[in-house]
Amino acid sequence: MKRLFDLLAILFLLLLATTVFFLFSFHPDRYKSDFLSWVNQQSDWQLNYDSSQWSLKQPLQLQVSGLSLAKPEQAALMVKQAELKLALLPLIKGTIRFDSVVLSDTQIAISDQLFSASKTEQPVGAAPSTSWFKQLEVGQILAKDGDFTWQRQEQNLRLERFELAIEDVAIELQQPAPSHWQFTLHGSAQQLITPWQTIKLPQLSLAYAKQLLVIDHIGADLLGGSFYAAAELKQQQLTISELALNNLKLEYFAQPAANTAATPTEPATDTLELSWLKQININNLLLNQVSLASQYQGHNLVLNKLTAELKQLQGAWPIQPSSLRGDFAFIADELYLDQIQLTELTASGQLQEQQLSLSALRSQLFKGQLELALSYQWQQQALTVHQLLLANNEIPIQPAWLPQAPHEPATEEQPAAAEQQPAPSHQTTLGLQELYIEQADLQQVKLLSYIDTLPFSATGLDLELRQLNLIKQGQWQSVEQLWQPQSRVFMEAPEIAFRGLVLNHSSIDLGSEQQLGYLNLYGELPLGQFELQAQSLLDQPHKPWQAQLSGLLLDISPLARLADNPDFNLVGDVELAGKLRGKLSDFWSNLDGELELHSQLLQLPGADLEVTLDQIIETPRQYFEDPSPLIAKGWPVFWRTPNNSLRDSANLPIPHSAPKLNKACYS
User: Fold this and answer.
1) DSSP string for 255-293
2) For 558-600, what is each residue's pLDDT tens digit?
3) Shortest CA distance to 52 belongs to which of 39, 60, 62, 37?
């Protein structure tokens, strides 16, 4: 029995010596070519390395130099030195566990073809059979001094000098789809180069476990500032708990279309597809000292030092402004929109389903104060001004504020066709279907026009607007449609000037009392005054109205300035009195009434006033059914240039009982 044990001991020692000799004398590089040939035949991925070395210490350690792994035209990985530590005991339990994987001087390159090719390969779950091994675990993967390149249709992304740590990796080999993976990742880089911007010092820290992605931190320095975010992605819903943008300087300038015949605003073809995202929520968005410069459709926009906070923003992806919901508040030092400058701007509001509400906007505008509250319905394109206040402003009216109608001179071949102008359209150019003003106030406002065709100014202007529906169904509303029982317009100005004609203490008061509308118009000239009082039955069809007109001008010479001709002069006095009536619907064709004119002296150059008045009395329809020529030409209807006149100035004394326009009816 003793000899048997001695024999077994000798055999064990021989086996151990043989094993130790084999392990210490075996070198994997001896079988390198056979190993690489077998591996490269298993898939499209090609593996290669320069040399390798291993150690039998616990855990098993393998070092590989000059490692490369590539898939032609899709991906490539090159590592100067790789070190793997494999735990042996978990293999017995069917688990492949690497305690650590360290990669030095890593170079990674991928292309879009890698993702398109992966969709045509074997379906999820059809991985090679690994009946014995059930789990792949990696304690830590470290990549040092690496570079990463993503080739995307000539718009490459490059991550330079990155450091990457992936920990606690767990993959079920029976279900190797990424939806069943688990890992944590921490990474940083020197810079990320994109076709649009170079991003400095990007940082990322996240955790992923079975379709739940938690981004603890993502940040970078870019555009002269920095950003930081924390988010969570689950079931195609991205929830950003916090997003902060600090000191960014943003610029956006729309590029002109290369081909004018092409359809405008074609969708971009290089946008990143986000099929994994359907909903986005932002709990807290912070903007700190952000500046923006933009030019779009001929308009210049500059926003300096914006500080804003937006909370509980929710919307579907891709983001549409009409679908957003949330609260916001912001302040800004300056906002420039073309020639309009707003300073010390503050505002707050709310985004609701299909609606934007601006509850309190305050700013300094044109040396005065601006307060505004409004709401906008995205789908209906309806803007409601709840409150507008302008106080102590000095507003310069610029030519660019008014639409410029192109005018081409008449040619000799077609003079009549060129003179025929189309009827003015009531269609708006504001892109609005509805515009309703609940309350608007101007207090001590000064207006000064810089438009040659509108030489106008006003000082100390006070204006009140209440319950006015200015635009409805995309059309500007007429006086009949504007004058509603709840509407109110009041205007008062110490001085209004037009072409040098100064009106003092002028006022307009339009409103209603129990379905009875009233209009009071009053103004003073240097030597005269005029007044109009009118009433309308707002609850009746077509809104019938009646008015009384009275005026006394001891000197009518200031009226000559309305002709916009320095050679035109008026001399004399006029006293007016009349009673008018009609309907607001189709106003001019329903105008009726009596008008009396009394004067001691009227002097007009180059005109026969008596003949002109007789013509108006005999054929009033010719002069008043279409008032556009009268309004457009003004006094030249009665008077032509002195060169074309048949005689010199006419001095026509008219007795006190001057010609009477009695019942000038043109219905």
Assistant:
1) PPPS-TTSPSSPPPSSPPP-TT--EEEEEEEEEEEEEEE
2) 888 887 777 778 888 889 999 999 998 888 888 888 988 888 8
3) 62
Listing DSSP states for 584-614 in one string gives: STTTGGG-EEEEEEE-S-EEETT--HHHHHH
For the segment 469-515, what is each residue's pLDDT rounded down to a tens digit? 999 998 888 888 888 888 999 999 999 998 888 899 999 999 988 88
pLDDT score for 599: 85
- Two structure tokens written together for 407: 């005018």
Q: What angle do CA 591, 596, 601 make, to 5 degrees?
A: 135
At 193-237, the pLDDT tens digits run 988 889 999 999 999 998 899 999 999 999 889 999 999 999 889
Please name the residue ranges forming H helices in 76-220: 89-92, 112-120
The helix (H) or strand (E) run that includes residue 622 is helix 620-624
3-state secondary structure of 330: strand
Contacts of residue 308, defined as CB under 8 A and 6 or more positions apart, other chains included, come to 285, 286, 287, 290, 328, 329, 330, 331
Burial environment of residue 52 by CB neighbours within 10 A (0 to 12, 13 to 18, 19 or more):
middle
Q: What is the pLDDT of residue 384?
A: 95
Residues 6+ away with beta carbon under 8 Å from 399: 450, 451, 452
Among 292, 198, 196, 287, which Cα is nearest to 249's?
Answer: 292
Intra-chain end-to-end CA distance of the chain, in Å: 142
Looking up tokens 């200015």, which residue turns up? 470
Residue with tokens 């003079």: 415
Q: What is the pLDDT of residues 315-356, one digit of tens each?
A: 888 877 777 889 999 999 999 988 889 999 999 999 888 899
Burial class (CB in 10 A: 0-12, 13-18, 19+), 351: buried
In the chain, the largest separation of any two C-alpha atoms, in whole Å, equals: 163
Are the C-beta atoms of 187 and 165 separated by less than 8 Å?
yes
CB atoms within 10 A of CB 384: 17
Q: What is the pLDDT of residue 14?
A: 63
Is residue 376 within 8 Å of 382, Cβ to Cβ?
yes
How far is the C-alpha of 330 from the C-alpha of 286, rounded, in Å?
10
Q: Do residues 360 and 373 lie in contact, with contact meaning Cβ atoms separated by under 8 Å?
A: yes
- Phi and psi based region of residue 440 (left: phi greater than 0; alpha: psi -120 to 50; beta: remaining): beta
Euclidean distance between CA atoms 663 and 659, whole angstroms: 13
648, HSE (Cβ side, Cα atoms, 13 Å): 1
12 phi, psi to nearest 5 deg: -65, -40
Q: Which amino acid is at 186?
A: H
Could you count the other beta carbons within 10 Å of the beta carbon of residue 55? Answer: 11
d(CA 300, CA 420): 36
Which residues 6+ apart lie within 8 Å of 197 measured at CB? 222, 223
Q: What is the pLDDT of residues 48-106, one digit of tens each?
A: 988 888 776 667 888 889 999 998 888 999 999 999 998 888 888 888 899 999 999 99
Structure-block tokens of residue 187: 């990474």
- Count of CA atoms in the C-beta half-sphere (13 A) of 62: 15
Residue with token string 């003015």? 424
